[in-house]
Amino acid sequence: PTVYVINGPNLNLLGTREPEQYGRATLADVEELCRSAAEAHGFGLVFRQSNYEGELVSWVQEAGAARAAGIVLNAAAYTHTSIALLDAVAAVAVPVIEVHITNVHAREPFRHVSYVARAAKGVICGLGPQGYALAIAGLAGLVTQREL
Ligand code: DQA
């Protein structure tokens, strides 16, 4: 079983981008964290980042077609704007956990709205990069729950 971790725009700049907001961990650090979490739960990992909305949509579809165990999605700013990503998440029969490094609810009002969340299984925000690892643990829990 494979977990897709899909990252949206500007997350390639993690580490140097507004460190007071997002911290000093780079996207490579986040990938490493995800790789150990995936391994610990017996998942393979596909880890991607794009600044292009349509590419994110295609990857959600790809994870659906591949019957992935789950998707961890930090759609970054597209979270708050993209009906296309919402539709993609709704279209796939794969649980999607929305993740944000920051607590979006403590930030500007335009970040309080998530289109993606309407079709997400769950949402984790505000816990920093470890939110990704928690989401992967959550997907493992969902698999176990389905088997009960
Ligand atoms: C983010 C929060 C979004 O509002 C913002 O546009 C991002 C990153 C986060 O991980 O905290 O780019 O998704």
UniProtKB/TrEMBL annotation:
Active site (record annotation): 22 (proton acceptor), 100 (proton donor)
Reaction catalysis annotation: 3-dehydroquinate = 3-dehydroshikimate + H2O
GO biological process entries: amino acid biosynthetic process; aromatic amino acid family biosynthetic process; chorismate biosynthetic process; quinate catabolic process
Entry-linked SUPFAM superfamilies: Type II 3-dehydroquinate dehydratase
Positions of substrate binding: 74, 80, 87, 101-102, 111
Pathway: Metabolic intermediate biosynthesis; chorismate biosynthesis; chorismate from D-erythrose 4-phosphate and phosphoenolpyruvate: step 3/7
Domain of life: Bacteria
Keyword flag ATP-binding: no
InterPro entries: DHquinase_II, DHquinase_II_CS, DHquinase_II_sf
Protein keywords: Amino-acid biosynthesis, Aromatic amino acid biosynthesis, Lyase
One MF annotation (Gene Ontology) recorded for this entry: 3-dehydroquinate dehydratase activity
EC assignment: 4.2.1.10
Pfam family of the protein (one): DHquinase_II
Family membership: Belongs to the type-II 3-dehydroquinase family.
NCBIfam families given in the database record: aroQ, PRK05395.1-2, PRK05395.1-3, PRK05395.1-4
Name the UniProt record assigns to this protein: 3-dehydroquinate dehydratase
Organism: Rhodoplanes serenus
Name of the coding gene: aroQ
